[in-house]
Amino acid sequence: MNMISLFGKPEKVEPSFLEKLKASVTKTKAALSETVDNIFLGEKQIDPAALKQLETALLTADLGVKTTREILDSIWSRVDSLHRLFLAALPEVATSVRRGRCTDNSFEADRL
User: Fold this and answer.
1) I need a surface site. Which of 23, 49, 64, 105 has the fewest CB within 10 A?
2) Element (H, E) at 105
């Protein structure tokens, strides 16, 4: 922020602590958001390497070890649940394929 002095020359006023903090948080939020988008919105699979990237991004953004651990544990739990669901559906899919009832688009995921 600039202020004009009595002699017409602008004086440079340093940003307040709150303004500096807000700018820093905004930059951190943008960097974290971009990193998360790059990890999960691309064609990349959610694998241990992607989760390691996420962990690094969360820790770098100062979310803390506890919060980072809770986020990663939640993701692993969901991945594990999807894996179990997939494994449970395999016998039905295999049977349908063997009987010729399953074509490229004929198997309904909502039946799982």
Assistant:
1) 105
2) none
SS3 86: helix
Domain harbouring 92, CATH code: 1.20.120
Number of domains in the chain: 1
DSSP string, 43-71: S----HHHHHHHHHHHHHTT--HHHHHHH
Q: pLDDT at residue 112 above 50? A: no
Q: Would 10 be classed as within a structural domain? A: no
- The tokens describing 54, both together, are 């996420």
Element (H, E) at 92: helix 65-98
pLDDT at 110 over 50: no
- With respect to residue 63, please indicate whether it lies within any of the assigned structural domains: yes
Q: Is residue 49 part of a domain?
A: yes
